[in-house]
Amino acid sequence: MIKLENVTKVYKTGVRALNDVSLDIAPGEFVYVIGPTGAGKSTFIKLLYREEVATSGKVFVDGQDVKKIKNWKVPYFRRKIGVVFQNYRLLPKKTVFENIAFALEVTDTPKVEIRKKVRRVLELVGLEDKANAFPHELSGGQQQRVAIARAIVNNPKVLIADEPTGNLDPDTSKEIIELLEKINEVNKTTVLVVTHDRDIVQKYKKRTIRIEDGCIKTDTSLGGYNI
Ligand code: ADP
Ligand code: ADP
To answer: Which residues form the ABC transporter domain (predicted)?
Structure first.
């Protein structure tokens, strides 16, 4: 589902954020990406949804060479990938329903279909009773659930979560990770979670890729933070 071949990313400033990185992530895998600040984790993720383009090497997502996607096709390509962030990034003046429906309205989905799809994802994330609430009326964990619902409503092949529990307490963090696991299991979505949370990486033993100084330091299917 995701393949990097000798990928190097050098920013205009001369910073070498990734250095000759190669890796393979199969469809349906659940992967943690860990490593210190400045290691290159965000750069790796940005290459996947073409927020950035590799300086050299190749990035493939779902068999597509990301660099070769024409600019006008990038929005279509991005529908294959759902992304959630640490700070949720919900639209504050829109309701939960509208925040999620928004992702479908840009795709010309008929209204009846939109309602059905939004209801289905709200049920999946356990917020069917919050459709008419505004983001500020929800807890952080609930807001992150809405962000996840929005990220998966187009049925993406890949779900990327960049520090999804960074603003949440330990119990809520576990709930969010368990929700991501459920989406991985039920929808067979390939899930990547970038995290600094040692407890989570230790508890939910999954493939863990550690990036340091722009290189993959370790990559183990056993999981655990101290590898
Ligand atoms: P992480 O997500 O692991 O904290 P990043 O991928 O954000 O790491 O950053 C890797 C390195 O690249 C850092 O030195 C960072 O300062 C640098 N960097 C990230 N984005 C840019 C950018 N847009 N322009 C220049 N340097 C950048
Ligand atoms: P986050 O909190 O998500 O890690 P950052 O504050 O590290 O975000 O980065 C915010 C934005 O600035 C990102 O788009 C990142 O690529 C960019 N950035 C990070 N480091 C640098 C840098 N050294 N020079 C220019 N842009 C950078």
So the answer is: 2-227
CATH number at residue 57: 3.40.50.300
* Residue 90, in any domain of the structure: yes
Q: How many domains is the chain built from?
A: 1
pTM of the full structure: 0.89
CB of residue 43 inside a 6 A radius of ligand 1: yes
52 is in which domain, residue-wise? 2-220
Task: Return the pLDDT at 47.
Answer: 97
Tokens of 60: 């493939």
> ipTM of this predicted complex?
0.78
Cα(51) to ligand 2 centroid in Å equals: 12
Beta carbon of 14 within 6 Å of any ligand 1 atom:
no
Q: Is 205 helix (H, G, I), strand (E, B) or coil?
A: coil
Cα 43 to middle of ligand 2, angstroms: 9
Token output for 83: 């992304």
222 to 24, 32, 116, 211: CA distances (angstroms): 16, 11, 39, 16
Q: Whose CA is nearest to atom 7 of ligand 1?
A: 42
- Expressed in angstroms and rounded, the spacing between residue 14 Cα and the centre of ligand 2 is 14
Q: pLDDT at position 7, please?
A: 98
